[in-house]
Design a protein that fits this description.
Layout (H helix, E strand, L loop, with lengths): L22 H12 L3 E8 L8 H17 L3 E8 L3 E9 L19 H17 L8 E7 L11 H17 L3 E6 L2 H9 L8 E3 L5 H16 L36
Parallel strand pairs: 1-2, 1-4, 4-5, 5-6
Antiparallel strand pairs: 2-3
Helix pairs in contact: 2-6, 3-4
């Protein structure tokens, strides 16, 4: 167990009796502990199909945000996407992030899912690289009710490979990626083609995005506490079949309308 308090001894008043560190080293460590924080990125679907569950999406996100605030210090990035990509907060202290409302969350357009993931991961990487103190953990979460159908920058087979590589590389650095989708096919694609771990994906009833955010909040809080169990401990993980490498096999590769 880490020594928390400097304990002097008569024999050696300059070093802690328990851990042998100096008083200055004790104080320095305490300052670092008080500065520890997490980095959270949320990629929120705002496409037209979310209109029918707009109010529940707002309620769910706001409850999620409040719970993450209560879990400790964090920098927070929030992006909304449809066929456009909007950055609402970029590495902002979580305490200043505002709730979603009917005015600032207005579903529209189609679903450029891969563009949103690719751009958000790249932006998070850039912000993390600028930090003098590194986060305890880095979490990237996607919540969507539909399938990719409008990406331009990360499109087709090439775009999917790029996303897969980005996510795989950052998982090796300790990042955790979460994917919640209302479409079973979206969950399958997230694991087989985009690089999300099966344990970190789950589905939700299309009419209940508020419940999806509740699942995500519990999983994120567990990760912030030092666990890496994804949704597995909640008994609701959706784990499509995959090859040994986690990459799509030749049998699972499919051509789409936007393939290039």
């Amino acid at each position: 167990m880490e020594c928390k308090e400097f304990v002097k001894s008569l024999a050696d008043p300059f070093h802690c009796r328990n851990c042998r560190r100096t008083l200055q080293e004790h104080e320095s460590n305490g300052a670092l502990e008080s500065d520890r924080f997490d980095f959270i990125t949320v990629i929120l679907d705002r496409s037209g199909s979310m209109q029918q569950v707009k109010n529940k999406t707002i309620e769910g996100f706001n409850a999620y945000l409040d719970e993450q605030r209560s879990a400790g210090k964090a920098l927070f990035t929030l992006v909304q996407f449809d066929d456009e990509y909007e950055v609402l907060y970029d590495a902002a202290p979580i305490d200043i992030v505002e709730h979603r409302t009917a005015a600032n969350y207005q579903p529209r357009g189609s679903t450029a899912l891969l563009d949103a993931i690719g751009r958000a991961v790249a932006a998070t990487s850039e912000q993390v690289s600028k930090l003098s103190v590194k986060p305890k953990c880095i979490l990237v979460s996607v919540i969507t009710d539909g399938l990719e159908n409008a990406s331009v920058e990360f499109c087709g087979e090439k775009g999917r490979r790029q996303i897969f590589q980005m996510i795989e590389e950052r998982k090796k650095e300790g990042w955790q990626f979460f994917f919640i989708g209302a479409e079973p096919k979206a969950i399958e694609d997230a694991v087989q083609e985009y690089g999300f771990s099966a344990s970190h994906t789950t589905s939700y009833a299309v009419a209940a995005p508020d419940e999806a955010f509740a699942l995500l909040s519990r999983a994120n809080i567990a990760s912030r506490a030092g666990l890496n169990c994804g949704f597995g401990s909640q008994g609701n993980s959706n784990q499509p079949s995959r090859g040994n490498s986690g990459r799509p096999s030749s049998k699972t590769k499919r051509r789409r309308a936007n393939d290039v």
